[in-house]
Write a structure and sequence with these properties.
single chain; 205 residues; alpha+beta; Immunoglobulin-like; six-stranded mixed sheet; 3 helices; 16% helix; globular; Protein DPCD
């Protein structure tokens, strides 16, 4: 079921990205950024209001935020080797890439599990050496109330990165196709060179 909009979507083009802001009747907001040439989804983030009516932090669903570089912090993270998760969106798959996992493929167990009967379920990652454990959700399936199917799950390991692919459900593919048509028809003003955070229509309140 499509989420109900509180107002028409807005769109701007910033630094080669088409940024679309959606505000919903439940008070939540979503920002998506697409490559203006390839139409690849580069970022999707959402935030919701708490019981006091204030916005919580942005939750990144796809991609990663472009942040000011802190070389000392980056070197510390690299030296520490902490696993880093990035969710990607391709035409056919939901993709999770988990970096800094220096284990062979046979060390990993990647399964679909349900906390309660009838829930959408989660992708659960375990290692036989008990060095890593993670639960991953797919928000698109949660919004459509579609249960995860183990038959749609694939994974591989390349260059210390665990790559998990989940084949998109037909309902998600249909929603993607409809959204693509909508994006093509949505007018966008170009504000290249402007401060992207100040122009996304979602200033913190």
């Amino acid at each position: 079921m499509a989420e109900r909009l509180a107002e028409p979507k807005s769109s701007v083009i910033v630094n080669g990205r088409k940024r679309i802001t959606s505000k919903f009747v439940d008070g939540s907001e979503m920002v998506e950024e697409y490559d203006v040439i390839t139409d690849e989804l580069l970022l999707r983030k959402r935030r919701v209001k708490n019981t006091l009516g204030n916005f919580g932090d942005w939750q990144v669903e796809v991609g990663s935020e472009v942040k000011t570089r802190n070389l000392e912090k980056e070197l510390l993270i690299e030296a520490n080797g902490s696993p880093e998760i990035v969710k990607q969106d391709t035409p056919e798959y939901h993709v999770f890439r988990i970096r800094n996992l220096p284990y062979a493929k046979d060390v990993f167990s990647v399964t679909v599990e349900h906390r309660e009967p009838g829930d959408v379920g989660e992708i659960v990652v375990r290692t036989s050496n008990k060095k890593y454990f993670k639960r991953l959700s797919i928000p698109e399936l949660q919004r459509h109330h579609i249960q995860l199917d183990p038959g749609h799950l694939l994974y591989d390991v390349q260059h210390n990165t665990l790559i998990i692919r989940y084949k998109k459900h037909l309902a998600v593919l249909a929603a993607d196709a409809a959204a693509k048509k909508e994006r093509a028809a949505l007018p966008a003003r170009r504000i290249d060179g402007a401060d992207g955070n100040a122009s996304d229509g979602c200033a913190q309140q």
